[in-house]
Amino acid sequence: MAIGNKYRPDYVAPPGLILREHLEARGQSPEEFARDCDRSPEFIRGLLAGESALDEATAQRFEDLLNLRAYIWLRCEAGYRRHLSRQAEARRVAATSNWSESFPIKELVKRGAIEKPESEADAVFRLLHFFEVWTPAEWQEMYGAGSVIYSRLPQCSGETARLAAWRRIGELEAEWQRGSDYNAASFLDALTRIRRLTGQPPVAVWPQAVQLCNDAGVVLTLVKPFAALDLRGSAWRLSSRQAIIQLGNPRQPAGRLWQTFFHAAAHLLLHSNPCDGNFFIDPDSRQNADVENEANRWVSDFLLAAASA
Ligand SMILES: [Zn+2]
User: Fold this and answer.
1) pLDDT tens-digit profile of 94-113?
2) What ranges do the domains of the chain cover?
3) How far, in Å, is the centroid of ligand 1 from the Cα of 234?
4) Ligand 1 centre from 257 Cα, in Å?
5) CA of 186 to the centre of ligand 1 (A)
6) Domain 15-92, architecture per CATH
7) Suppose 50 and one of 14, 64, 66, 174 were both cysteines; which one would form an S-S bond, judging by CB atoms 3.0 to 4.6 Å apart?
8) How remote is the CA of residue 230 from the centroid of ligand 1, in Å?
9) pTM of the model
């Protein structure tokens, strides 16, 4: 049985599987149980096979007989139905397009972000699950080129897909870094403290920098970019309560790493708000020179003030 990816399992147990375990524990046959709960044996066998749908009245009956709350049965049923509908959409997409081909599937598998797909439809399914969307259209809206503002707009769909996968890994990592709500004043304070750490090797002070950022509502991640993506860092708001700074290329020199970090921080402080969907990415040579100059000027002023403090 597939156990799913390292971030979020992409296998969903049908309620029939839980029922099977209960019946085995009770030593009861499907037919006996069907009689106990006033349902037909065909229905119970269908449920065990993941074919029949579980309704509310039956879930209540299961609660009475098996001592497992009805809402748990129904939640399990709803999750299973969603899983089936995503699988159906994946089959449809695979039959009508080559949507999955732009994504760095092998690399995503290597990084434990998705399970190795068994077919093209399976690849589409795992990608939809990874991005937590239901259709390529929804993916396009959330991660496609049109959603990326102030960026070096990717020139081909492959680049957009690799960029989106990189960003998504950061979003999933962010779930492990729950801190305080985002607060610009605390973040500024955190930056002053992090500035004092930058004389030491990044690897030695990274956990401290992450903690300081988290305490101010900012997730700090380091995710190696996918092949052919020249990325040093990016920043965006995940929600009104959380922002993220994601740096790429862990092997860049320490000075440049911190420069990228403070530059991304400047974008958060100066240019982001939770609703605009701005996604800042650097290097950012082709557009929005004003925004870039503003961020660079902020970093120079900040570092100068910190040095003379
Ligand atoms: Zn920038």
Assistant:
1) 999 999 999 999 999 999 99
2) 15-92, 163-308
3) 8
4) 13
5) 22
6) Orthogonal Bundle (1.10)
7) 14
8) 14
9) 0.82
